[in-house]
Structure formats: structure tokens, C-alpha cells
Design goal:
The protein has helices at residues 16-32, 80-100, 114-118, 129-139, 145-155, 165-174, 176-187, 195-206, 212-223, 238-251, 257-263, 300-313; strands at residues 37-38, 54-59, 64-68, 74-75, 162-163, 208-210, 227-228, 233-234, 268-270, 275-280, 284-289, 292-293. With 320 residues, it is of the alpha+beta class. The structure holds glutamine (GLN).
Length: 320
Amino acid sequence: MTEIKLETTEAAPLPPELESAFREAYEIGSAVTGTGRVADYIPELAKADRRAFGIAMLDGQGRSLCLGDAETRFSIQSVCKVIILAVSLKAKGQRETFSHVMMEPSGDAFDSILKLDTRSNRPFNPLINAGAIQLVSTLVEDFSFEQLMDEARTLCMDERICLNEAVYRSEFESGNRNRAIAYLLKSKGVLQGDPEKTADLYFKLCSLSVTAKSLAALGLVIANGGVDPFRGEQLIAREHVRILKSLMFTCGLYDYSGKFGVRVGVPAKSGVGGGLLCAARGPMGIGLYGPALDEFGNSVAGVTAMEHLSRQLNLHVFDY
Ligand code: GLN
């Protein structure tokens, strides 16, 4: 695969107001990152530097900006659920995908089992653990981990994405709740395949090693209607992009999605590794990394920085 360099020399310079909005957002995010807590329920994640913070921006004209820890590798965690959904839509189509999961916000924590047992057999949406695990179970026989990693590399324009073995081992050893979800789905006859194989592939996908820059590139592809603007290749079908954006908007930040929708108003997806993927108008992809999390499992610095960027750059989807 040819590597796409994000810093293109031919790209026009960034307008000063854009650059200063990003610099301010970086300062504001850096100031609050210490108030969050690094995830420790997966022991390996606890090793992250809680003060780390980075922002990467990439737009459709190839203009880019990297601030702070924008090139630090971290595990993609729940942001991989966007890739899992994109692959499921491509491989199985919309009808089959949504015969396995619903498209409703759950109002519960990302790893909750509650409603799955009491309210519905089908997981509420593909962006919570139960939904992603269910979709992975439908892909596990058709795709190897390497093939799915290749999808991630293409969508993120980052051939250096690889498996973080230490995070994977840690997830594997501590992932009993996710195994419980897989077995609960199996007991209900929803999960068709082997729960262990499914959980294993899910752990590996969560352990893919990315940077804020990789998330910015994925954000750009989604913001640009599924087309890689540099190669002109349609990577995600347009009607699937609509689904991704809608679910990212309504469910992308777990039970903080409503507030994020009001305050920021940009389709986004967070992960407990500290990553935040945003698909903004322009088209513009924004990737953020700040491993100190709030009570919902979202990056404190990432969310705060996005609030500032949305205000300064008029990014709210209902303002344009
Ligand atoms: N691997 C994590 C888990 O399954 C992903 C969760 C997240 O990022 N919110 O618990």
C-alpha cells in the first residue's frame, strides 16, 4: 500500500483563524487533561501518560496540522467500532447488519449488560460493546484479523497501524465482561458463532495501534462522503456514510452523546484509549488523543477541545 503523507508540501497554507482556533483548543484541552483519569480496568491502559494530549487535523485540500502528541501511538479501543460497522455494512449490507443490532442510543455505559438482558435481545446499537461484539461475530468466519487490520490501515491512511500485543494480552486477560456479553448473546441465540473466537477478534481490533493523525484521516474520509480525497477512491459507500455519521452523532460518545451533540454537534467516536475521531464539515477530519477520561469514558481534553473548535469554527451540523 502506498503511504499517504499527511503533510503535503503543495497544500495551501492554513488560514490564520483556523490555525489559531486549533492552537487555542490545544491550550484549553491541555489545561484540563489532568482532571481526568486514565482507564485502568484494562491494566495496560493505565500506563498511559495522563497529561498527554494531541490534536491532528486533515482537510480535503491536504492541509494538515499536528499539535502536541498527535503522533503518539495508542490503542484505538472503541473507535474501532466505526470500522467494524463500515466493514459489516460493506460485507453484509444494511438490512442484514441491522437484523443483528438496533440503531438506538442505549443511555447506559458502553459495557452495560443490563438492557441486553431485560429489554432486548438485539444490542441497542453497533457503537456499544454488545453491538460491536455481535457484529464481530458475524464477520469472524469471513475475515481474518489481518484483513480487518488492512481495512483499518486503508481507512486511516496509515500503513503503520499494527497490533499492540501488550494491550491485546491485557484485554484478553481482563476481558471477562466482554466475554460475558458474548455468552449472553449466545444464550439468547443472537450470536451465531463461537463466543471465544468472537471475543478474541474483538480484543484484537480494540488493540490496534493508531495516532491522532490516523483518526483525522478516517474522519476526513467519513466527512468527505466516504471518498479518499487524495486518491479519489470511494472507500465507504455514500449511503453507509450516512449511517455511520448518524450513529456517531447519536451514540458515538456513549451516554454523553446527547450533550456532545448539543455542545459540539459533530459526528464523533471516542475510545477508552483516549482517542476521539471527528468528521467535520469542510470536509475536515479531526483526531484527538488524551488518555485522561471523564466519568463516561471519553477523553476530557478531547471533548473540551472539540467544544472550543466547534464554537470557533462553526462546526455544529445544525448551524449550517
Ligand atoms: N476494549 C474496550 C472494552 O471493550 C473498549 C471500550 C471503549 O473504548 N469504550 O471494554
